[in-house]
Amino acid sequence: MTVPNVTLNNGVEIPQLGFGVFQIDPKDTKEATLTALEVGYRHIDTAEMYGNEKEVGEAVASSGLKRDEIFVTSKLNNGFHATKDALQAFDTTMDDLGFEYLDLFLVHWPLPKIGDFVETWQAMQQILESKRVRAIGVSNFQPHHIERLLKETDVVPAVNQIEVHPYLTQDDVRDFNREHGIATEAWSPIAQGKVLDDATIVDIAERLGKTPAQVTLRWHIQRGDIVFPKSVTRERVVENFNLFDFELSDDDIAAITALNRDERTGPNPDEFNYIPS
Length: 277
Ligand code: NDP
Hints:
single chain; 277 residues; alpha/beta; TIM Barrel; 10 helices; 39% helix; binds NADPH dihydro-nicotinamide-adenine-dinucleotide phosphate
């Protein structure tokens, strides 16, 4: 089963399917990540906020794979948007992961009412210049946030990681990203399970002999987005990886896209200004 790569705007290649570790208890993260790597995943999405970077690093180190065979993303936590804090937080992330380089580092949330994310992005540019990260990007940025980065800074984000699933198709943000050469990463790709009972998705899955999760993840893949479903259940980790031996028709894709209700499972980035204590 070969996972296709997406080429980012600086030439770096990222596997289109990965494994997310949000809400995996640190004590379970090493085992869950090792399971994903055994199944064949070569892309792991973590964050300082998830509290499990150290365990992701341990899994990578003990996997028997070479560091350059695995693409790892982490994210700058919300309390560290000022330049000095961002530079220090990146050092801590690298220490926790135990890596000499990171593949992708993202600003986790724009926090429009706290500090200025343009300053944060300038710090990200400094981190990129240090060559300890292969690509930098943003997460949960709305087009008007990215417009400011495009006007006021030098590096176009390589990715924008946003909530996307059949109940929140985000076509405006995805179109904006595409027009600016920014790859879209779709977080909570199965809406944490909420879309799996949907009659339209269940009908397509039954017709194709696939599961609702596989149909939903395949919908993302055929739309060109990057996904990293999370599961601590081995059968689901296997199920979610098996997306490349079938195809959805244009009608199936359109039917799933028509399920959009603009319904978020997470916060609205324009209103979210949370800093963990
Ligand atoms: P997902 O949409 O990946 O859903 C995960 C949930 O669905 C878990 O409860 C899991 O259960 C269950 N599940 C997984 N696969 C299946 C399946 N095949 N059948 C039935 N149930 C299934 O949600 P996440 O919020 O975890 O999003 C994925 C990743 O996106 C995160 O891990 C993180 O890396 C990233 N993310 C980024 C955010 C950001 O702000 N940038 C915010 C949120 C997520 P179980 O584990 O018990 O098997």
